[in-house]
Predict the structure.
Amino acid sequence: MDAPPELPAFEPTPAQRSAAARIMARCDELAALSSLPDGVYRSYLTKEHARCNARVSGWLEDAGLAAWQDAAGNLCGRLAAPGPGPHRTLLLGSHLDTVRNAGKYDGILGVLLALEAMAALRAAGEALPFHVDLLGFGDEEGARFGTTLLGSRAVAGSWEPAWFDLRDGDGTTLGDALAAFGCDPANIGRASRAGEDLVGYLEVHIEQGPVLEDNNQPLGVVPSIAGARRFRVRVSGRAGHAGTVPMNMRQDALVAAAGAVHLVERIAERFEIVATVGQLRCYPGAPNVIPGDCEFSVDIRAGRDRTRDLAVEALQDEIGRLTASRGMRVSWEETHRATAVECASWLQRVLEDAVLALGLSPVSIVSGAGHDAMSLAPITDVGMLFVRCAGGISHHPAEAVTEEDVAAALAALELTLRALAAREGEENP
């Protein structure tokens, strides 16, 4: 089937073209702040993180915006509302950390788009009835300490004291890393924005998937962020000599596990969700021994928790029948669970209207990846705008966006801020 035709190209203003080119150049500049000599890697509370915060802070100040670092090491900026207040606050942001051997745009693009939108409004002298705060989260990926969303969870007021004892690969605790970064662990609660009068939180992010490219559209609106569950599954059979046990008398755990992996794919298709087996190991792992045990991972995600959980139940039931029919045992250990997050319907409409106003068609895309918006959903309404990325590739050096799509995202974000200002004025005259 042919791809749907693309609508007439959006035509950015000269200022938006210039800003998009600046964003692309700055993404290149931040990519050089890496602990790898030949790749991009910037993890939480490292010297590369500090240099990145300082660089973006300088850009905020160059644009006439306030800049500071919060108690969790997140970079913050503000376009202040005029007058004495009190004023509500709109949060914009994404993350500045990366996975190992990353691309240039995951997280970083959203931070720089927010910065440019705030700078454009200030340069135009447009007064908004609320503060606009930029949040460049220091840790979303969890690459250093193994627990994701540390930056945004501090802002949401959901920091767990036990995290101070997490250790990186060199044995450094998170508490010690915070202190070395200039943050007092005892003051981590000061990063929280919970309880503040917030308008909402908006995040622009590359899609990290192929749907926008397949639809020939640069921008998508996210209705929800998928909830994920992960398991470690172990199939136990009986090891034996590869040359002496007849085929009809074997209890080969790897053969049963292979059937189970196929069931993961079938169940995902049946429930119209996504599921992945990313790891598989067999024991004892010798070429001349029938595997007696096999262990594999299952990552299963859906936009609605109920759908995901029904799929898990079906998968456990069918894999149980498969292994029992071969005289084997199966055990499941849940290693991760994240609740699905619904984006606020009113923010979805505002974002969709902005995209439509540009002559583009907003594609609705459930996010299968986790984002900082998940952390902030308990304290305020959240919305997300996706930007097309080449081939849907992310977490890889080949990650790419076009300057034209960045300009479209910037224009949509500017329109969204103006629409939110108008809405605020109507609700609070």
User: Anything to note?
Assistant: Residues 403-427 form the longest helix (25 residues). The chain has two domains: 14-225+341-427, 227-338. The first strand starts at residue 66 and ends at 69.
